Amino acid sequence: MPGQLHRQAPGNLDMELANAQSQDGESKGGVLAHLERLEIQLSKSHKKLEEPQREQAVESALGTKIHKLRLLRDKLSAEVKQRQARVKVSAANVEPDQTLEISEQEILERKQENVKAILQAYRFTGISGKLTSRGVCVCISTAFEGNLLDSYFVDLVIQKPLRIHHHSIPVFIPLEEIAAKYLQTNIQHFLFILCEYLNAYSGRKYQADRLQSDFAACLAGPLQRNSLCNLLSFTYKVEPKDQSFPFCARLLYKDLTTALPTDVTVTYRGTDASATTWEEQRAAHEHMFFTKPLHQVFTSFARKGEKLDMSLVS
Amino acid sequence: MRRDPAGNVGRAKEMDETVAEFFRRTILKIPITEMMAVLKAWDFLSENHLQTVNFRQRKESLVQDLVLLCEEKRASLNDAALLDIIYTQFHRHQKVWDVFQMSRRPGEDIDLFDMEQFKSSFKKILQRALKNVTVSFRDTEENAVWIRIAWGTQYRKPNQYKPVYVVYYSQTPYAFVASSLLKSNLPLLGQALTVASKHHQIVKMDLRSRYLDSLKAIVFKQYNQTFETHNSTTPLQERSLGLDINMDSRIIHENRVEKERIQRVTQEIFGDYPQPRLEFAQYKLETKFKSDLNGGILAEREEPLRCLVKFSSPHLLEALKSLAPAGIADAPLSPLLTCIPNKGMNYFKIRDK
């Protein structure tokens, strides 16, 4: 068909010429255009011939590049190894310094733990405290005969006037009175007096609790007591084997700063005719209640009983 | 004449009708779920006795059986009164408690409180003044005693159904009284309490609530029991009062600084501890009306305005604590609201200075 360019296999120029000739009578553009086309085709086929060459050139260029890079890589890895070796050597030299740093930190940590432990252990002295944002929180730790008992707190606000923010002192301890007397003028004395009251109360309470729990079998009925544990009244026996409870005791603690009674009354309410031995016992008991802690009096009753048993056996 | 199950008509007559009725009504009040616990605390009927009773039957029949058992065991009015005390101890919130404060003359001797002496002295004072009065006691933990008083008159027997309860902790100046007290009997009760406990004066505090334990915490100052020590391992944590600022990263709080200030102020005033429980605070105002506007009907009156403002809540102090964090009120709250536990008051009279 006229003007139509068929796709032809490269290098098939004869056929193209034949085609062009068959289209005789066409304008010059036709032939020139055809020539142009042929030229283009020629250059294309040249290019295609060149491609493998160019490819080869590229290939070889890349190959060189690879080679160069490999060399560079080897060089760098060699350098890295060298540096590592150097670092190791220097690390060996530096190590003692680093361990020194670690142990300094450890030392400081241990010191801090130590100080914390000392602060915590201060409660064993009886009075300890911790600073708060508004003042100080004082802790009074009570004890009786080596037994650590309850702790009580007084949270003080450091202002003029000094005041108590809140506390855990029992309501029957005369805190307001003691504060009215000493808090503003002599805070050491205030704390000391409070300490006395609380330790004595704790001690009396401890004795009463021990009597109730350890020697319930020796008591007829519950121990009569009050909040301050400053009046104790009970009916008791000495021998666990006894059927009756021959003695009545009434202990008054008029001095609230002591844990031993100020007044003791023991009465014998048995029906035994032989008065003298009972009177001796009664007086002995009175003396013991004055001088020994309550539960220890009963412990010594038990021991005497054991001695008696032993003497009977032998 | 009544017949008990064994058919012994004569013995049943030994218990007074009124006492039997009192037993019946008291036992009837006890909910079935608590029946065993209350009877065990009462300790009048032993395990063996209780085993003879069928606790699964209808309540009315159960009550009848128990009353008959009490009659058999010759229970007295005092035993019934004791049962009533125990029931009230289980249901203390059903009563409204007032607080009274006693005082001594300064320089008095040490209080050597003897519980038995107190009880006998208290009873004697009432019985000397009023022939017809029933007084019963029950000791409790913490060296305290519950007292039940049924009042009569010179000519009438004590009314067992309108008793007064008093709770007293030895060697303290406070007594808690469950109202239903005729005003006429109040001075006598006050006298008995002060003389028996060796005080000289008694005054009613402006403090009232159903929650006996909260009243005790307030006057004994036991409500704030957190203290800073070196022994506490956990540091005092900041509590968020119902508003967690960092809850959702998509929410940006524009007034974070203000919110934090409110939390800090609230924490300073109310602390980290659970608040004692009160149901209301009442303010009686007798003040002149103050107004910014000139003129107006209420301004420039000679007489003070009288009005009553009452705040009610199932838990008043917790509610007040949450006001500022919830944005309903400014922080700090008015000292009239925040002084309640400190001053031990929830009734206020406000006058012009």
Automatic annotation (TrEMBL), chain A:
<keyword id="KW-0158">Chromosome</keyword>
<dbReference type="Pfam" id="PF09496">
    <property type="entry name" value="CENP-O"/>
</dbReference>
<dbReference type="GO" id="GO:0005634">
    <property type="term" value="C:nucleus"/>
</dbReference>
<keyword id="KW-0539">Nucleus</keyword>
<protein>
    <recommendedName>
        <fullName>Centromere protein O</fullName>
    </recommendedName>
</protein>
<dbReference type="InterPro" id="IPR018464">
    <property type="entry name" value="CENP-O"/>
</dbReference>
<feature type="region of interest" description="Disordered">
    <location>
        <begin position="1"/>
        <end position="28"/>
    </location>
</feature>
<comment type="similarity">
    <text>Belongs to the CENP-O/MCM21 family.</text>
</comment>
<keyword id="KW-0137">Centromere</keyword>
<dbReference type="GO" id="GO:0031511">
    <property type="term" value="C:Mis6-Sim4 complex"/>
</dbReference>
TrEMBL record, chain B:
<comment type="similarity">
    <text>Belongs to the CENP-N/CHL4 family.</text>
</comment>
<dbReference type="GO" id="GO:0007059">
    <property type="term" value="P:chromosome segregation"/>
</dbReference>
<keyword id="KW-0539">Nucleus</keyword>
<dbReference type="Pfam" id="PF05238">
    <property type="entry name" value="CENP-N"/>
</dbReference>
<dbReference type="GO" id="GO:0034080">
    <property type="term" value="P:CENP-A containing chromatin assembly"/>
</dbReference>
<keyword id="KW-0158">Chromosome</keyword>
<dbReference type="GO" id="GO:0005654">
    <property type="term" value="C:nucleoplasm"/>
</dbReference>
<keyword id="KW-0137">Centromere</keyword>
<dbReference type="GO" id="GO:0000775">
    <property type="term" value="C:chromosome, centromeric region"/>
</dbReference>
<protein>
    <submittedName>
        <fullName>Centromere protein N isoform X2</fullName>
    </submittedName>
</protein>
<dbReference type="InterPro" id="IPR007902">
    <property type="entry name" value="Chl4/mis15/CENP-N"/>
</dbReference>
<dbReference type="InterPro" id="IPR052011">
    <property type="entry name" value="CENP-NAC/CAD_complex"/>
</dbReference>
